[in-house]
Amino acid sequence: MKDPVSKSQKNVKLYLMSRQGSHLFSFIFFLTAIILILLGSLLFSSGRLTTPLLKSSNVSQQAKNLLTEKRFLDEFQPPKLKNFNQLEVEKVIETFLGNLPGNYAIIIKSLESGEEFTLFENKVFHSASLYKLAVMWATYQAIEERGLDKETLLFPSNNSLPSMKVAEALEKMITVSDNHSAILLAQKLGWEKITQLMHQEGLTRTSLIDYPQTTAKDIAKLLEKVYLGQAVNKEASKEMLDLLLKQRVNDRIPKYLPEEIKVAHKTGELDTVRHDAGIVFTPNGGYILVVLTDTIRQDFTKNQVALLSQEIYNLFEKNLSSEINASPQGLNSEKTYVSFGDLLK
């Protein structure tokens, strides 16, 4: 019969030996790592590990700057939304768009703080009538730089369609999304030239060639430039904003908002596409809302976008009002807000 005590002692010995072996392995691994680090440091300082890119002093300095920026990005986390609570926004989007059978993209950007919430912002969609925003910008550019007169008469290639003055075509194209007006202006300016202008302005995923396409990010950028007076110039930007405020197709972003709330926006609608993009002006400031959708449930989607817009408005007002009330001086309208992206410029 085997002695249980001796067996137990044997197990303890085996356990201790395994522990000692484990410690020895850890010590050897640690020592090897230190040697490799020291060796790497010596080689790098001697220049043997310097890449060809860093041999040039100018490029080396650029690389150092990039490394500094990277360290800054690693250490600095973008601020959470002040005007929009991040979790609340996500919940609203999930509620109203999460179950759509299709694709969608959204951007919400506070014009007070510069903060934004984005989802699928670089996804390319058929722009539908949102391309008319690009045509509007290009028309004002032509008026400013190429001497196009608002009273110039535009003649269609098809004689059965009416001719129209530039000013009339601009208004109809935006306020009632008239296709004939848009085509008259685009043919006058050139589809390719309009696309080139958009690319020059940073809307690199927007094109009017072959078929019009864009992204939520591009549309939000265009609207922000209009808001800031940077679309052609301040006067032209104001006129564009006035046209967008006269929009008569109001079955999405403005639908469930209070009547006194002004919305400068443009819709897009074609086949399965239902878009709306605009600037919402509230007593406490404004924000950009862009919603692009491509779904087989078009009418349902339009109402979901309207409900989403209502909830975003409620969140904006609730959070910004709280911020104003929490401050002894309220919100300083003359304050310059700096977004996270601006810190890296």
Q: What is the CA-based Rg, rounded?
A: 30 Å
- How far apart are the termini? 82 Å
Number of helices: 10
Give the averaged pLDDT, no decimals: 80
Looking at the structure, what is the overall shape? globular
Predict the CATH topology of the largest domain.
Answer: Beta-lactamase
- Named at the architecture level, the CATH assignment of the largest domain is 3-Layer(aba) Sandwich
Fourth CATH level, the homologous superfamily of the largest domain? DD-peptidase/beta-lactamase superfamily
Find the structural class using helix and strand composition.
alpha+beta
Sketch the major β-sheet: 5 strands, antiparallel
The number of E-state strands comes to 9
Strand arrangement in the largest pleated sheet: 2-1-9-8-7
Structural notes for this entry:
By secondary structure, this protein is α+β, with helices and mostly antiparallel strands. It has two domains: 33 residues; 250 residues, DD-peptidase/beta-lactamase superfamily (Beta-lactamase, 3-Layer(aba) Sandwich), CATH 3.40.710.10. 50% of the residues lie in helices and 15% in strands. The chain has a five-stranded antiparallel β-sheet, sandwiched between helices. Strands 3-6 form a two-stranded antiparallel sheet. A two-stranded antiparallel sheet has the order 4-5. A hairpin with a 2-residue loop joins strand 7 and strand 8. The longest helix is centred in the N-terminal third of the chain and has 43 residues. The radius of gyration is 30 Å and the shape is globular. The N terminus and C terminus are likely disordered.
